[in-house]
Amino acid sequence: MLNEAVAYYHELLKDADLAAASQKLLDEGLESSKLIFGGRRLSPYLRPHFVTESDWSQITTTCETIFGALQKVKDVAISDDALLDELGVTEIERELVKIDPKYSHVSPTSRLDSFLTEDAYSYVELNGESPAGIAYADSASHIFQSLPVMKKFAERYGVRSFDGSSKLLEVLLDCYAEFCGGKPNPKPVIAIVDLKDLPTLKKFELFRNFFQSNGYKSIICSPDEIDFDGYSNSTARDSRRAVSRSTSFTNVYSLMNICLSWTPSPLCSTPIGLVRSAWSTAFAASWCIKRRSLPC
To answer: Are strands 286-291 and 157-161 parallel, antiparallel or unpaired?
Structure first.
């Protein structure tokens, strides 16, 4: 069915007026949403990534199985030096392993980088950093949904987009509730923490806007702006305790002193994002599709 659906989508784009109108809306949407990274637009083409519901269901089950195995390894490794040796964990990494984040999942929002082709579903790595692209993909999906060509395509095929931002928020709040031993009151402030002067600010702004639209105050700050008073973390902009969405720690070793100084505060701090099983690292919108029943 997938090849048939893709062929139909390409056939729709042979309508020059339909394609031109769709391209115009896509360009305007990307521009107004500032979906730009490294000076180029994200998903500048009228070619979304389609995935069948059956493939998506199978991928989800596979990823859940793999993450279940990873969780079992973590549960044993944190108290087994021999296993840490076998895993090749360095001394400085062991200092991080010793920190109990007060939630049970090994890395609740890491992702399995993977690729789905006609012949195989293959993994590249377990990416423990915050997965890039969640907010970008959600924004791109909303833009694609408004395109004339997608509306025409949806008359024949049932289409749904993936919603990553809401799942990220759910994971953050679940981890924080587990840390607190129950539903926190008042609501936490969500701090989006990363080093300064990185090209990821727009992504952070999209997340901040999403969190705030769902009733959670959110701030963007760098590690040096966070203070720990022995009980909770705060910034000059908000004195309440915060659940942290820490982003790519490529310079994690240089941040070790900062990270260790936070312990044992109520800052749920992992390289946090969404278990993004099967999402391409490209920023093209992805969709699940199924054949819509058509009247004769």
So the answer is: antiparallel
| Cβ atoms 95, 260 nearer than 8 A | yes
Q: Is the pLDDT of residue 272 over 50?
A: no
User: Quick one: pLDDT band at residue 256, thresholds 50, 70, 90?
Assistant: very low
| The pair of three-digit structure tokens given for residue 171, joined into one six-digit string | 């994971």
Beta bridge partners of 271: 246
CB atoms within 10 A of CB 104: 11
Structural contact between residues 165 and 135, judged by C-beta atoms closer than 8 angstroms? yes
Bridge partners (DSSP) listed for residue 255: none
Q: How many CA atoms lie within 13 A of 292 on its CB side?
A: 13
What does the pLDDT look like over 98-107, one tens digit per residue?
Answer: 888 888 888 8
For residue 280, count other CB atoms closer than 10 A to its CB: 16
Q: Which of 220, 223, 217 is nearest to 205 (CA)?
A: 220
The SS3 call for residue 253 is helix
Q: Is omega for the bond preceding 264 within 30 degrees of 0, making it cis? A: yes
Tokens of 222: 């760098």
First to last CA, the chain: 19
Residue 212 reports pLDDT greater than 90: yes
Domain boundaries, the chain: 2-163+275-291, 166-262
Pairing of strands 218-221, 189-193: parallel
Task: Tell me the CATH class for 166-262.
Answer: alpha beta
> In this predicted structure, what is the pLDDT of residue 164?
87
CA distances from 134 to 25, 157, 281, 288 (A): 21, 24, 10, 16
34: Cα within 13 Å, side-chain hemisphere: 8
Cα separation, 153 vs 169, in Å, equals 31
Stated length of the chain: 296
